[in-house]
Amino acid sequence: MTQLASMGGDTSADFDDAGGGPTIAPTPYELGTPPGVLDPEELRLVDAWWRAANYLAVGQIYLMANPLLREPLQAEHVKPRLLGHFGTVPGLNLAYVHANRLIKERDLDAVFVAGPGHGGPGPNACAWLEGTYSELYSHIPQDARGMQSFFHQFSFPGGVPSHCAPETPGSFHEGGELGYSLLHAYGAALDSPDLTVFCVVGDGEAETGPLAGSWHAAKFIDPARDGAVLPILALNEFKIANPTILARIPESELFELMRGYGYDPHIVSGDDPGTVHQAFAETLETCLDKIAAIQQQARSAPSELGPDSSAPAWPMIVMRTPKGWTCPPEVDGQRVEGTFRAHQVPLPSAHTDSKHRAVLEQWMKAYRPEELFDDEGRPVPELLALPPTGTRRMSDNPVANGGMLRDLQLPDWRDYGVDVPAPGVQSHEATRVLGGWLRDVTKNNPTNFLTMAPDELASNRLQDILEVTGRKWEIGEGPFDERLDRSGRVIEVLSEHMCEGLLEGYLLSGRHGAFTCYEAFIHIVDSMFNQHAKWLQTSAQVPWRRPIASLNYLLSSHVWRQDHNGLTHQDPGFLDVVLNKDPSVVRIYLPPDANTLLSTFDHCLRSRHYVNVVVAGKQPQFDYLSVEDAALHCARGAGIWEWASNKDDVSTLPDVVLASAGEVPTLEVLAAASILRERLPDLRVRVVNVVDLMRLLPEAEHPHGMPDREFDTLFTATQPVIFAFHGYPWLVHRLTYRRTNHNQFHVRGYKERGTTTTPFDMVMLNDLDRFHLVMDVIDRVPALGARCAGLRQEMEDARLRARTYTREHGMDDPAVSSWTWQG
Amino acid sequence: MTQLASMGGDTSADFDDAGGGPTIAPTPYELGTPPGVLDPEELRLVDAWWRAANYLAVGQIYLMANPLLREPLQAEHVKPRLLGHFGTVPGLNLAYVHANRLIKERDLDAVFVAGPGHGGPGPNACAWLEGTYSELYSHIPQDARGMQSFFHQFSFPGGVPSHCAPETPGSFHEGGELGYSLLHAYGAALDSPDLTVFCVVGDGEAETGPLAGSWHAAKFIDPARDGAVLPILALNEFKIANPTILARIPESELFELMRGYGYDPHIVSGDDPGTVHQAFAETLETCLDKIAAIQQQARSAPSELGPDSSAPAWPMIVMRTPKGWTCPPEVDGQRVEGTFRAHQVPLPSAHTDSKHRAVLEQWMKAYRPEELFDDEGRPVPELLALPPTGTRRMSDNPVANGGMLRDLQLPDWRDYGVDVPAPGVQSHEATRVLGGWLRDVTKNNPTNFLTMAPDELASNRLQDILEVTGRKWEIGEGPFDERLDRSGRVIEVLSEHMCEGLLEGYLLSGRHGAFTCYEAFIHIVDSMFNQHAKWLQTSAQVPWRRPIASLNYLLSSHVWRQDHNGLTHQDPGFLDVVLNKDPSVVRIYLPPDANTLLSTFDHCLRSRHYVNVVVAGKQPQFDYLSVEDAALHCARGAGIWEWASNKDDVSTLPDVVLASAGEVPTLEVLAAASILRERLPDLRVRVVNVVDLMRLLPEAEHPHGMPDREFDTLFTATQPVIFAFHGYPWLVHRLTYRRTNHNQFHVRGYKERGTTTTPFDMVMLNDLDRFHLVMDVIDRVPALGARCAGLRQEMEDARLRARTYTREHGMDDPAVSSWTWQG
């Protein structure tokens, strides 16, 4: 650092008590008028707006009263618990005010993504200065009273979080967990040709894996059809307690890294506000010029992909300014400004320690609030006039509030259904059938529906989508590539984080999509899912937030069919993670065949503001339900399959209920029912299938929850229930433990017994196979037991035979694999 | 691609039936003798070994009989299900054989990490050629019979997975999920100054976030004290169905990226084996020379960190060779070699289609097995003599089998315990107390214990460790940094993936460590945890695998104390993820105070082959148990706290059991017990605390599981149990649903109600507060009810008062927060 602006010099509160209200004078840190693209007047105003935003940020962190410091600062004005992060705020505010200047000058349609965690006071302050805050929250007008409420609510019980959140006007990126800013920014830019996303990336979050990988997201941006992202890497050197990697490597190395990622890096560096303002203003102009040139060229002469294609070198900015810039340089003899100590609250004892409080007062007064706010506490007219107006304000841009949302044109899924002459006889690959429908969804919605896959689109059998589009790709094409396309409607990249993050950005700005993934590896984005679910939960409580399209997962290549991948690829536990989130925003579906999958996915694409998890098979599997029956069954979510039941009618209780949820468990339940029907023809067997897992929950716990009475009708209040479940078995107990008949629920599922083996061997390893289910029935139905010892032994023998066959032949015994339902 | 070696030319099986056994002749692809560092004889042998490894890889994928092709290839020789990935194998084998040459020449202590997924056939083949496979698996001798078993078992039911796995000799890196190869490699290199890790990174996995971030791991490698990693980026251009990003950006851009990451990149590119052999041999020599020079310089004159410090530019290799190199160039008129179609099985119908089978036979014979294996099927003497011997073989290096493991020198935790004159009166920050002990653990074990944190060491109150060491850091130091050190014993980087991956590599090679993380964000590594748990589970079944030290998580900054971070930082669901893994390898502890935390962590650091999850508080919290009591309580895992119970003795049943697990729930349970004692002095209240969550499971389901009899003694078989739990409440139901008294379990926990608020407001939001627990008791104990309507109302009022106070003052009502236990 060459020279730090002294902020503590002039502490005299110099209220203009003459008529005419305050005017904005030169700053105490001798702003000067360094030459540059800003004329002195512009510079003065930009700086004043920046000072105001910084003042409002400090106020949020510290004050609960006396917002304009018009009384001497007392302990009771300062919050008892000081919570918030100032370190990154001045950088955010700097980027914001300069973005505003060019939005106005160029009439840009722009949004702002604040990547640095807990930088909330910055964007909050900007939104208040722009007036949006007061428009959305009537208790926070743009005056002294509003300022007081605005300060008070920040990181205060019942108030707003310290990071950008659903409550933050103009934000569509939660600042809680780090690493996803660029992905959300690029996701919003997709299919938004006129949008510019200013995305500030923290140098802390830049260390995360997801962020490190996501710089490559620019390679999926088509300058002709998509908008632009301008990444601004905020290099303020410090995290909570440590320096950051990118700040400590030589600048030349950082530039190589950015060029290696495909960017054209620019740097703005310094700690003198005037100089930095000029440099940032000029650099921003240059970058926006370059973006415009890239887009203009692509839009005037769109080019095909070819061997020498390369994504344009999009500009990006490295903004190297001090951590906690403009905060007290030293506190208690320790350097603060420009160090990790400025990360959070630079004066942690301001409530209790009068010396800290005096420094706080000096610090805040150094921004000269008396010039920035009038007697009523309103921003002075010059400041009010500075930002753009209406929806050109980034805090009011509808894009940040799902504003691009419109309904999908969905073809009738019934037209894509398979004929089912009889249940359990013909087979289809369920996801392949769905792919046919998704192909036409893609075709019908050419600018607002995308499918994401980590190199697994075809592996999960959705390749029919590629009949109408290609895979989005902007860099070199080789002679043996297939279906790459600059404007493709499918994004494939071997990063679950990137698939998830781009889709989230796309949804949050108001579009639709699906993410297809191997079931086990969706755990890679557990934490991103958590954050998105929390965003949905909270934003549903924010009155001005609009519902967005649901996040739809299609998980295939699931636990039961990892024939050669083995244990590492066997994990159905994402369902357990999903169930922990607020019931109002999560849904789980386990369609057992092709037609139920179609019906389910149609429902998901029509829904709003949920996370829908659909687990489906990609291998050939029996069709059970006709289109009509599938529609009915999915509407019910769970129901009796009378055709598969035996001697079951409403007038008498069944001896046993065989229930299933999931493709493979349903097959085994039906095979078990078939054995029972043949061998114990008098046994009353009810077969129940569950598509919508949330139906199992009590009515009070989930909107889809089944009333007890209905549940008891389905599963009985007294009879044994053998439940074959797709995932970990205890999940069903977790859903049903309040039910009357829970003690009779006996659940089979995946219990972490896996390896490289055949499908039937897998179900045997986990005691989910048909033979074991029959044994379970014998063990649980009191009337059976000893009478069926012979049948039980036969089942044991059948398991042994099947196991031996598999070990010898490397495939399932045809006696098992060629089974079909005999109606 | 300039020129592809023709592999299909000579298909005549030319067995040497004259005396003297086979000799290795020139290859059919006209190896030639391009000039280079290998003399013609060396080149011939290196190439022969490579051919042998490739042959053995193809054999694994296709054959179940006729391994040496000494009979015409028939359908019954070919596996009915062809599973495996050939695409990446020739590259892996190339790197392996060249590494071997220099291991021998320079007597290197080296291990091999195969990053590309499903490349298992390659390292398997190398281990078989080196003899290790046969030494470890007696049913797979190094002859024709062994080769047949070796082929047969691959991706076959009851056999081995298609990727590197615990069963793979010399592997400590599971090849199932992608993205962690560099982290495991660097983790193994830490504190292993003489170790060289050859780490092949797939260009597919290079797209993942974790891998993209982990290139920076070199910045934590001290050339004086740590070993070296040589990354070899296998750029074969394709994933399952798509090109890779790094293969399609200009080479100059890729080089900038690698230089930006801090490396000194070298490239070997081509498809002519002879030329590539020469180039790779020479490049490998150059890189190892550079590594040696870096290490020699650092070790001869160790330097302090300073402003201009920079990590050395470690060499790395870009290896650009065709996907499926040496496989049939075309199949069914479609290009295969060098395209994504070579990713998995190039001839998918070889079992059923005689034309495919004929091509397979040609392909395998083109490696000329008759020169490579003698009449008995043993590798010919020249091949046997080629690799290094004993533990210099990478397949037999003990490092890859936890070989560096030795016990930790643990100071007696009792000496670090806090004095507890009476329970619930004095307070300590539990993790701060633990930090004192960990400081001395660190000091006592200067080369085999590391602590990892995503910038949260001090935030989680473990800063005392920094009294004896610094934070490991090899790049520039600034004037305001604190406790950075080239040889620090703490690694802080804002990437949970990097913390986890480095620690895994460190543990897998036989060292010890801990990972401290914010509770909510440990979800970021859910999937890495899953994979590590699966590795532990499987490796415990592999007889020659040694147990390794446990992976110890210390989760703090937990759900109940996110005062200013709010909902985004509130997620205790990692416990649910952990519980899904095999019970033999997972443990969860919830110590309620400082001494129990000490005792727990001591136990964890002594344990082997587990994942231990410890959730503890960092804020001041009451001490309850003396050192002696803590030791006893932790040994039991769960027990009655008699001092907190009321009128509870063994001869009579309590009226109610108040149980807790976790710091904050325990506080609330004690406060509730205190209210009940005062207000309902005749009520028999038993207070139970659970430290070891697995104790709740049935005996048959977990090694720590409590027998039913003991469980019923603790929780009764008939009385209401109000259970206050740290995490999501249904988790306790999942653990206890089989117990006699489960219907009487009433669990309070976190139910996704969170925001920016005070600690007591948080427990109120989730009905876990003391007042609500008292209400629960009134509602559940039949004898109370109407008689206690007044008390119930008081509790409601107390909640309202507390809530109002918080909203007004921004802090908890002192009436609540100043509560202490009155014994």
Characteristic key phrases:
alpha/beta; Rossmann fold; homodimer; lyase (chains A, B); Xul5P/Fru6P_PKetolase_N (chains A, B); 823 residues; Xul5P/Fru6P_PKetolase (chains A, B); 22 strands
Written overview of the protein:
- 2 copies of one chain form a homodimer.
- Chain A contains 26 helices and 22 strands.
- Chain A has 823 residues and is of the alpha/beta class.
- The first copy, chain A, folds into 3 domains: 346 residues, Thiamin diphosphate (ThDP)-binding fold, Pyr/PP domains (Rossmann fold, 3-Layer(aba) Sandwich); 209 residues, 3-Layer(aba) Sandwich (Rossmann fold), CATH 3.40.50; 178 residues, Rossmann fold, CATH 3.40.50.920.
- In chain A, the strands form 6 sheets. A 6-stranded parallel beta sheet of chain A has the order 12-9-13-14-16-15, with helices on both faces. In chain A, strands 1-2-3-5-4 form a 5-stranded parallel beta sheet, sandwiched between helices. A 5-stranded mixed beta sheet of chain A has the order 18-20-19-21-22, sandwiched between helices.
- In chain A, helix 10 links the parallel strand 4 and strand 5.
- In chain A, helix 1 packs across helix 3, helix 2 crosses helix 10 and helix 20 packs across helix 24.
- The termini of chain A are far apart.
- The N terminus of chain A is likely disordered.
- At the A-B interface, helix 7, helix 9, helix 15, helix 16 and helix 17 of A face helix 7, helix 9, helix 15, helix 16 and helix 17 of B.
